[in-house]
């Protein structure tokens, strides 16, 4: 009996960095069951002297074995095919490979199938890889890189670069980066971005569900759809929230401006890759802390909570006093948890809407976020219990924190109190902050941090003021106001997906055959006026979690 291991993700695309994990897929014949993979095979790995930190996450959206092999982090997925034997030359590209297998196996196979298909569709692989590496470094530096928390993940950014390579097949990597920013700002969202012609639900082979806003109502709510090129076609960015979309578009606009300055000689790529200081952007933050009793429980729990933070963002966006809820995609080890506990903390910066001046006799309105916080914590806890993920010792907590108190919660190497105090003394203020002057009708005042839990009656409350009570609304049932599903659905009906190509204001481009480019050598790539694109080494960047999507 033999199986076969495939790689996918950034390692398979050739855009991985030092210290990054390797996504792998174990394909087995039909007589091997998933329970064997997580029991007997796991037992074999436990006996290997180079395998450490081995952990099974069976209840995840995509079940996975996580481990470190010779200090290299490995995520190993499982897929059982309807084959008697797995041949050494097995290819996963054909749709027939999906026949008679369960949904979890299809999800596992999808990672490898998508990355292989991306490499097939780009006209120049080396140009694509160079541009993708640059975009990954940029997205991480600008804090817009995390699929689970509502930004774009590595595959989504890679697909945007791949689409740009299709549109400009002879462009240099630095030109590809600038062109990608340009067309992203002009794109008519929520029209889907596609690398290849995709089928509708009616034409779907093997009757598998594919992304189609005309047949699936939930698809019409997606804000920034980027469709995977392998069947079954899915939206890789269904997690994107309204606030995160706005933040990403602002960063794209900034990136395009900096690229223009680089071309004019007024800036350098170090300005392009400059790291964003999240903790100087806002005065008010909401923290989400996930704690547990041991490391193995924390890996599962923090990954699960991280995948649910976007629900709190969506709930805050519906508050009439909040204009932006900006989550930092990087998770940190909290400093305020009890000794012996494992924990992860995420910070959400809040921007409030400016309102008209109050009358002299009108008291200030106090914003109460108790409902949003309690609904979020209760929803996450209940879903964890229903999925058999929750164990004794797991806890989730949300708090309001002022910027001056962030040092009490974050590691010293992540937040410098003195540096931010100096910025404040100089009078620097980011556009993301909301100053609360006498004319401001929405204020947040607190003598300390208020924990959102249990019987807490108010979240952010100043003495003597009447707390603001938001309308009763369920996180799961509410619809993001910005997506306007009826209008979106009507637009997609007017210009439905068809076999003729994608819905786009850009011209349809047929990918250049790679063989022709290889024959032409370097002459196939048009020289760029920009300096050579050489992204800095990412190194062992801090990860939010070490867990798959829950």
Account of the 3D structure:
There is one protein chain. The chain is of the alpha+beta class. It is built from 14 helices and 13 strands. It has helices at residues 9-13, 34-38, 40-46, 103-121, 125-141, 154-167, 173-186, 242-264, 269-272, 295-317, 370-386, 417-425, 485-494, 514-520; strands at residues 4-8, 22-28, 51-57, 64-69, 72-80, 284-292, 322-327, 342-352, 365-367, 395-402, 442-443, 451-452, 467-468. A hairpin with a 6-residue loop joins strand 3 (51-57) and strand 4. Helix 4 (103-121) packs parallel to helix 6 (154-167), helix 5 crosses helix 6 and helix 5 crosses helix 7 (173-186). The longest helix is centred in the middle third of the chain and has 23 residues, at 242-264. The radius of gyration is 24 Å and the shape is globular.
Shape: globular
What is the number of helices?
Answer: 14
Helix content: 25-40%
> Between the first and last Cα atoms, what is the distance in angstroms?
32 Å
SSE series: EHEHHEEEHHHHHHEHEEEHEHEEEHH
Average residue pLDDT: 79
Structural class: alpha+beta
Integer-rounded radius of gyration:
24 Å
Give the tally of β-strands: 13
Unreliable spans: 424-523, 540-550
Strand numbers in spatial order across the main sheet = 1-2-5-4-3
Main sheet characteristics: 5 strands, mixed
Beta-strand residue fraction: 5-15%
């Amino acid at each position: 009996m033999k199986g076969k291991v495939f790689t996918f993700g950034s390692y398979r695309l050739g855009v991985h960095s030092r210290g990054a994990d390797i996504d792998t897929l174990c394909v087995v014949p039909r007589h091997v069951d998933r329970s064997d993979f997580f029991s007997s095979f796991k037992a074999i790995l436990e006996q290997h002297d180079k395998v450490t930190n081995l952990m099974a996450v069976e209840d995840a959206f995509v079940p996975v074995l996580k481990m470190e092999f010779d200090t290299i982090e490995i995520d190993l997925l499982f897929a059982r095919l309807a084959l008697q034997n797995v041949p050494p030359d097995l290819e996963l590209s054909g749709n027939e490979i999906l026949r008679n297998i369960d949904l979890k196996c299809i999800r596992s196979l999808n990672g490898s199938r998508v990355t292989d298909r991306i490499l097939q569709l780009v006209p120049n692989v080396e140009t694509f890889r160079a541009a993708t590496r640059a975009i990954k470094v940029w997205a991480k530096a600008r804090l817009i890189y995390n699929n689970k928390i509502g930004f774009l993940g590595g595959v989504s950014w890679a697909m945007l670069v791949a689409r740009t390579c299709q549109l400009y097949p002879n462009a240099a990597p630095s030109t590809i980066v600038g062109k990608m920013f340009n067309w992203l700002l002009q794109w008519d969202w929520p029209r889907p971005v596609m690398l290849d012609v995709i089928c509708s639900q009616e034409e779907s082979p093997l009757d598998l569900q594919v992304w189609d806003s005309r047949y699936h109502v939930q698809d019409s709510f997606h804000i920034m759809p980027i469709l995977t090129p392998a069947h079954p076609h899915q939206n890789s960015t269904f997690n994107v929230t309204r606030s995160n979309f706005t933040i990403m578009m602002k960063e794209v606009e900034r990136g395009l401006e900096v690229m223009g300055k680089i071309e004019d000689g007024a800036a350098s790529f170090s300005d392009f890759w400059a790291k964003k200081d999240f903790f100087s952007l806002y005065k008010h933050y909401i923290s989400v802390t996930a704690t547990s009793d041991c490391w193995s429980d924390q890996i599962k729990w923090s990954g699960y909570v991280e995948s649910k933070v976007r629900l709190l963002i969506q709930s805050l966006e519906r508050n009439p006093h909040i204009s932006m809820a900006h989550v930092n995609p990087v998770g940190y080890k909290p400093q305020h948890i009890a000794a012996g506990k494992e924990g992860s903390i995420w910070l959400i910066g809040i921007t409030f809407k400016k309102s008209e001046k109050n009358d002299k006799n009108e008291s200030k309105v106090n914003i109460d976020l108790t409902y949003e916080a309690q609904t979020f914590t209760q929803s996450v806890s209940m879903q964890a219990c229903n999925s058999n993920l929750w164990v004794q010792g797991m806890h989730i907590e949300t708090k309001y924190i002022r910027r001056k108190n962030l040092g009490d919660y974050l590691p010293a190497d992540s937040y410098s109190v003195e540096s931010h105090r100096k910025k404040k003394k100089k009078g620097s203020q980011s556009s993301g902050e909301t100053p609360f002057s006498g004319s401001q009708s929405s204020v947040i005042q607190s003598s300390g941090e208020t924990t959102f839990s249990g019987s807490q009656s108010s979240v952010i409350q100043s003495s003597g003021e009447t707390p603001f009570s938001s309308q009763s609304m369920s996180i799961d049932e509410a619809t993001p106001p910005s997506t306007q599903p009826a209008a979106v659905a009507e637009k997609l009906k007017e210009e439905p997906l068809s076999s003729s190509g994608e819905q786009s204001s850009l011209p349809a481009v047929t990918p250049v055959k790679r063989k022709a480019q290889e024959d032409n050598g370097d002459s196939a790539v048009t020289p760029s006026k920009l300096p050579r694109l050489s992204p800095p080494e990412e190194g062992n960047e801090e990860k939010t979690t070490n867990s798959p999507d829950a």
